[in-house]
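User: Can you help me understand a structure? I only have the sequence.
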Amino acid sequence: MKLQPASRKEIKRIALGTLACDGLLVAGLWLLSQFGIGTFDLVRIVLSAACGSVIAVANFTILCLTVQSAVEIENKRKMKARFQLSYNIRMVIQAGWVVVCFLVKPLHFVAGALPILFPNVVIFYLQFTGRLMPKEEAKAVSQDVPEVGLQNQ
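Assistant: Let's start by predicting it. Here is the structure, written out as tokens:
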């Protein structure tokens, strides 16, 4: 299945945000090492962060592909099963990566495992700054959703 342009745009935003978070992670680990908390091995940390970020962005890409394919399914039960299967596979991949980070000593555990959370951090940041959904799209969505409130009686 081919990614739609909107999905490609969001994956690019998530990837760039994850890269920025990787930079902050490396800087934070360096700063902690300056205070005597842990050791700083640049190659080990950057390699672990890069691999963790690839897993995180791949997870988001799989999510986009699942949503694109599930939209075409008319049977709600099959659609729910597709989402559940995708969710389970993505969680197993992420959990497997965390276990690999823990067991394989050349990898830095924190630098490898933390990037899995970075797409969520990027989404929260975009939502907080109002950049998650352009104003035109937000206005169109809000016009489509009926208002629910207390009615005067």
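Now, to help you interpret it: The chain has six helices and no strands. The CA atoms of residues 75 and 81 lie 10 Å apart. Let me know which part you'd like to focus on.
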